[in-house]
Amino acid sequence: MKAKQGVIDESELEVEVEEKREYSFGEKVSNYFYHNKWWLGIAAVVAVVVIFLVYDAVNLVRPDMTVLIVCNNYDLSMRTEAISAEFEKYTPDVNEDGEVYVAVYYMPTKAGEEVNYYDLQTYIANQSKFMGEFQDGDSMVVIADVESTNDNAGLDQLLENLEDKFQSDNINGYKYMLKDSKFGENINLSVIPNDLYVGVRAVQVGASYEKKMQRNYDVAMNALEQLISDWEEE
To answer: For residues 227 and 53, what is the distance between their CA atoms, to the nearest angstrom?
Structure first.
């Protein structure tokens, strides 16, 4: 104020200069993290997700064959590992990952007479999964019964006629009937329904995945041929 009023000259004023502080490396790092903590947190989460997805993709065991169980049979649902082992006996390492693995998916597409809301949602989801599995040439083997075949309209038209491939009293068109075979004994299942069968999808000529489907068809048919020989051995 005195300077403005001309009482003292501005040159007489003492100008206080703020001394510039030198921060240590640790303080600089701490300050950086403090001001960027939100962005760094988001980046860390994204990095963890990416690492998980990459790890999962690298270590995922891809099936050499896929078997779909579409009938509603609780006993079969408890023996998916045994069914997998049964088919693995005659399945080669198709994807050459050093391990033979047959995936068995239990996906009944119709509920019984008494079913709650959550069970109904499960069956609806199974129908979607079943249709999805039939949209490519990976899943070739189907275990079903007459009811589940009728439930999935057109399924019988998608399966190969086995009478043209094998000689067996257990074969009826596209169905290899499992009742009088050793299938139940081999998977430790004492009761086999009369209409339970195994079938193989026919190659869909002209499909974009025809070549892949043909390869999987050959693998499935070869395995089934050897399994039938085992199941009917005296």
So the answer is: 37
**What angle do helix axes 80-88 and 210-231 make, rounded to 10 degrees?**
100
At position 194, the amino acid (one-letter code) is N
This prediction's pTM: 0.71
Task: Residue 214: name the closest of 94, 68, 105, 103 by CA.
Answer: 94
CA-CA-CA-CA torsion sign (201, 202, 206, 209): positive
Residue 116's region, left for phi above 0, alpha for psi from -120 to 50, else beta, is beta
Q: Which of 86, 64, 67 is nearest to 142 (CA)?
A: 67
pLDDT reading at 15 higher than 60: no
